[in-house]
Amino acid sequence: MADTTDIKNGATIKFKDGLYQVVQFQHVKPGKGPAFVRTKLKNLETGRIVENTFNSGVKIDLVRIERRPYQFLYKEGLNYVFMHKETYEQVYIEEKLINAVDLMKEGQEIEIVFHAETKTPLTAELPAHVDLEITYTEPGLKGDTASSTALKDATVETGATIKVPLFINIGDKIKVDTREYVYAERIK
């Protein structure tokens, strides 16, 4: 059993009959009263983020997880098929376990997080940024291209719609932040 001093970003714990990943934490030592740890926890089943405060020294149950590199092959029914990059084993993952599934294209490299003891997949995570091509967007008007504050809708090759600056055109390649679904930069 671990305690609150073992809490760190990315750690996975058992909490309220579920598995939660620590998104953010802060050790607080107020001038008056005992120390505590303020956390933001992401439920690995639902993706919902909850805030919780642990009193200092409270026992927590850390869960060992493994991160393995996989490559997206294809979609089969309601599942997505991934191949391990070294052993070539294939695994089927439900759509609800994949973050930013509508930004994923065939051949995309991802990381699947497995529960180390039960060997069950918990989540599939795309890299922080992916490179995608614009398949449709309205043309920018002359004079609007100097400003990067105004945004318009653009459809990328995976079918997802992203807000992009007015100077982006069909055929441009862009970098998209998969955590926030936002345009990051144009690729030259």
Layout: helices, strands, pairs:
Layout: E1 2-3, E2 12-15, E3 18-28, E4 36-43, E5 49-55, E6 59-62, E7 65-76, E8 79-84, E9 90-94, E10 109-115, E11 121-125, E12 129-137, E13 151-156, E14 161-165, E15 173-177, E16 182-187
CATH domain fold name of the largest domain: SH3 type barrels
Mean pLDDT: 87
* Major pleated sheet: 6 strands, antiparallel
Helix content estimate: under 10%
Lateral arrangement of strands in the main beta sheet = 1-6-2-3-4-5
Q: Could you name the ranges where pLDDT drops below 50 across 5 or more consecutive residues?
A: none
What's the number of helices? 0
Count of domains: 3
Radius of gyration: 21 Å
CATH class of the largest domain: Mainly Beta
The span between the termini is: 51 Å
In terms of DSSP E residues, the strand content is over 45%
Shape: flat
The appropriate CATH architecture of the largest domain is Roll
Number of strands: 16
What would you say this structure looks like, in words?
The protein has three domains: 2-62, Roll (SH3 type barrels); 65-125, OB fold (Dihydrolipoamide Acetyltransferase, E2P); 130-187, Nucleic acid-binding proteins (OB fold (Dihydrolipoamide Acetyltransferase, E2P), Beta Barrel), CATH 2.40.50.140. Helix content is 0%, strand content 54%. It has strands at 2-3, 12-15, 18-28, 36-43, 49-55, 59-62, 65-76, 79-84, 90-94, 109-115, 121-125, 129-137, 151-156, 161-165, 173-177, 182-187. The termini are far apart.
Task: Provide a brief overview of the structure.
By secondary structure, the protein is an all-beta fold.
